[in-house]
UniProtKB/TrEMBL annotation:
<keyword id="KW-0472">Membrane</keyword>
<dbReference type="InterPro" id="IPR029787">
    <property type="entry name" value="Nucleotide_cyclase"/>
</dbReference>
<feature type="transmembrane region" description="Helical">
    <location>
        <begin position="164"/>
        <end position="184"/>
    </location>
</feature>
<dbReference type="InterPro" id="IPR043128">
    <property type="entry name" value="Rev_trsase/Diguanyl_cyclase"/>
</dbReference>
<protein>
    <recommendedName>
        <fullName>diguanylate cyclase</fullName>
        <ecNumber>2.7.7.65</ecNumber>
    </recommendedName>
</protein>
<dbReference type="InterPro" id="IPR050469">
    <property type="entry name" value="Diguanylate_Cyclase"/>
</dbReference>
<dbReference type="InterPro" id="IPR000160">
    <property type="entry name" value="GGDEF_dom"/>
</dbReference>
<dbReference type="Pfam" id="PF00990">
    <property type="entry name" value="GGDEF"/>
</dbReference>
<feature type="transmembrane region" description="Helical">
    <location>
        <begin position="129"/>
        <end position="148"/>
    </location>
</feature>
<feature type="transmembrane region" description="Helical">
    <location>
        <begin position="24"/>
        <end position="44"/>
    </location>
</feature>
<feature type="transmembrane region" description="Helical">
    <location>
        <begin position="107"/>
        <end position="122"/>
    </location>
</feature>
<dbReference type="InterPro" id="IPR048432">
    <property type="entry name" value="MASE7"/>
</dbReference>
<keyword id="KW-0812">Transmembrane</keyword>
<feature type="domain" description="GGDEF">
    <location>
        <begin position="236"/>
        <end position="377"/>
    </location>
</feature>
<feature type="transmembrane region" description="Helical">
    <location>
        <begin position="50"/>
        <end position="70"/>
    </location>
</feature>
<feature type="transmembrane region" description="Helical">
    <location>
        <begin position="82"/>
        <end position="101"/>
    </location>
</feature>
<keyword id="KW-1133">Transmembrane helix</keyword>
């Protein structure tokens, strides 16, 4: 039933952008409303005294036809013409009908409301033009009110019919404005919902690495900043891991760029299985380098995860024959942690923690690869001393391949 009714205001809507479609539908709805709202008046004229009200009845027939003409006009895609017909028709009906029956029946009030709504049909309407149109309707309203007094109107509607018509006009005007406001509210809610969804989608897109589906460096920066301020508040631990695929250049040379891409995807998926806490963030830092932010994770926990990452990637058994028969893809890992007890904990920030993990990664690479190295946050930054007193093999519990 509702769908059948909706078909009535469909003419001309198809093939247009959503906003335009809504305006055309509103134009059709107002055309149908204008014609339908005139019917009770026409019935009154016919049933009460057709001979007296013939003039207004015939004039109304013309107005009804004009209202309905917006449907074929919109169907022919003459949307501006349809809107103009509505506006001019409403204007003329205000004058002509008021001339016949006076202001007692409230029709002038009714068309004034209709005019305000009609103006919405004009796209990109300049506020000055809007004010001008509404002011001209205001003038018309005043003119009809004062021009057509009981003595000047052709055939005034007698009491109590004039009061009934007045009540009907007010009710019609209020209902019409209510419906239109409701429809606009619905459209705004709908548009807001869509905007929120597309904003969320764009945000996800801007924080995601397209190759692996992991978060990207932008998300890492935000997470580090967020977790750093949380660390200061909650006085817990924060760790960062960085890892990098070993000899990836030669892997790429051997298996091509596509093979390299597939390898990165496999590594990302395996790392995702290791980094399973919802609060942890695994990101592709760039190229063949990855990073992990581990909130509420101390040194021991981070070391364990680093070890698990090495094992998980090795267990993928992705061959890298460029390094010799039977060789597999491995990673080197750098880890750094901070707890609230660490001295000058708030001196540097999350970026510094990342830097420490990167230095540890550099150390893991330079000391033979396929291993994990821990670098404390509070150590001096000098390359020579940063892992002083911590032989690489002692840093992370290593199995035999991690010498
Ligand atoms: N297939 C593929 N290759 C990439 C991508 N990003 C970076 N690379 C390649 O990764 C390689 C990284 O090489 P290097 O920085 O020399 O590092 P490496 O060969 O892994 O050497 P180590 O890190 O010292 O073990 C380069 O050849 C890059 O072209 C990517 O998205 N896809």
């Amino acid at each position: 039933m509702i769908n059948t009714i909706k078909q009535l205001w469909r003419p001309g809507t198809s093939g247009n952008p959503r906003g335009v479609r809504r305006r055309i539908a509103l134009c059709n709805q107002l055309g149908l409303f204008g014609a339908t709202a005139t019917i009770p008046y026409q019935l009154f004229y016919c049933l009460y005294d057709f001979a007296v009200y013939r003039g207004v009845f015939l004039a109304n027939l013309v107005f009804m036809a004009a209202y309905l003409s917006v449907l074929p006009l919109n169907h022919k895609r003459w949307h501006n013409t349809a809107s103009n017909v509505l506006l001019i028709n409403g204007c003329c009906q205000l004058f002509v009908v008021t001339f016949f029956i006076g202001t007692e029946a409230g029709v002038n009030l009714f068309y004034f409301t209709l005019a305000a709504i009609l103006v919405f049909l004009y796209e990109h309407l300049h506020s000055r033009i809007y004010i001008a149109i509404m002011a001209s309707f205001g003038v018309q309203y005043a003119l009809t009110h004062f021009l057509f007094t009981a003595e000047t109107v052709a055939t005034p509607v007698p009491s109590p019919w004039s009061e009934i018509m007045y009540a009907g006009s007010v009710a019609g005007a209020l209902t019409l404005s209510g419906i239109v406001l409701y429809l606009f509210r619905q459209q705004i809610d709908h548009a807001e919902g869509e905007l929120m969804l597309s904003n969320r989608y764009l945000e996800t897109l801007s924080n995601t690495d397209p190759l692996t589906g992991l978060a990207n460096r932008r998300a890492l920066d935000a997470a580090l900043e967020r977790e750093w301020s949380r660390l200061a508040r909650r006085q817990q631990a924060l760790s960062v891991i960085m890892f990098d695929v070993d000899h990836f250049k030669s892997f790429n040379d051997q298996y091509g760029h596509d093979g390299g891409d597939r390898c990165l995807q496999q590594i990302a998926a395996a790392a995702k299985n290791v980094i399973s806490r919802a609060s942890d963030l695994l990101v592709r830092y760039g190229g063949e380098e990855f990073a992990v932010v581990l909130p509420d994770t101390d040194e021991a926990g981070a070391r364990l995860l680093a070890q698990q990452l090495c094992t998980a990637i090795e267990r993928l058994n992705i061959p890298n024959e460029s390094l010799g028969a039977g060789a597999c893809v491995t990673i080197s890992v750098g880890v750094s942690s901070i707890t609230h007890t660490t001295s000058d904990a708030h001196g540097y920030g999350g970026a510094h923690l990342l830097k420490r993990a990167d230095e540890a990664l550099y150390q893991a690479k330079s000391s033979g690869r396929n291993r994990a190295v821990y670098c404390p946050y509070a150590q001096p930054l000098s390359v020579d001393t940063r892992i002083a007193g911590r032989p690489v093999s002692d840093d992370i519990d290593s199995r035999s391949p991690l010498s």
